[in-house]
Amino acid sequence: MRQKTFLITGASSGIGLATAQRLAKNGNNIILVSHNQEKLNKAVVTLSGNGHRTICCDLCSSAHVEEIYQVLITWNTRLDGMVYSAGISPLCLLKDNTVELMKQVFEVNLFSFIELVKHFQRPEISYDGARIVAVSSITARGAGYRQTLYGSSKAAMISAVKLMARELMNRNIRINCISPGVTDTPMLDDLRNNST
Hints:
The protein is of the alpha/beta class. It has helices spanning 14-25, 37-44, 65-74, 99-120, 148-168, 186-193; strands at 5-9, 29-34, 53-56, 79-84, 126-135, 174-178.
C-alpha cells in the first residue's frame, strides 16, 4: 500500500503535534507546518518513522498560504489529508478589543484555513477522496470569559466547514470539524499565565 501524506498546521506543539505523532505512528508521512522553524525541528524528531518534512509558514497572513503549496509542488507531493490546528487565543475584554486584534485572530483562526482549503482542493495538490479536519473549540458555543474573538472565529470556522463541504463533494473530499474542550497544551498554559 502507498504511504499516505498528511499536512498538519500548528504542528510544533499541542493538538497539532499530538495528531502528527499519532498519524506518524500509524505509518503515514507527515508535513508539519508552523511559524517557528526551531520548534518544528524539535517536533519532527519526535515522530515515528522517516521521511517527515517541515514547512515554516506564518499563518498570521493568509497571503502566505500559497507558499505552502508551492513547496509541495516543488517536492512533487500530493496530500491524502490535512489537519488545521493552528490558532491563537488572546484573552480580551470587549471594551479592550481593537480592529487590529480582531483581524489578527480571524486571520489565523479562519482566513488562513479557508485559503488552505481553497488550494488543497486542487487536483495537483490532493488526491480524490482526501480528508480535511479543522480544529475548532467548545468556546465556539459560548463558553469562555474574555474569549469573544477566539470563540467567534472558531464558530465561523464551524460554519465555513459546513458550507465548504458541498463544494468539496465533487472530488469526494470529506471535511469535518472537531470542537475540543479544555486541553492541556501550551496554548492553555499561555491562557493561564495571562488570566491574572
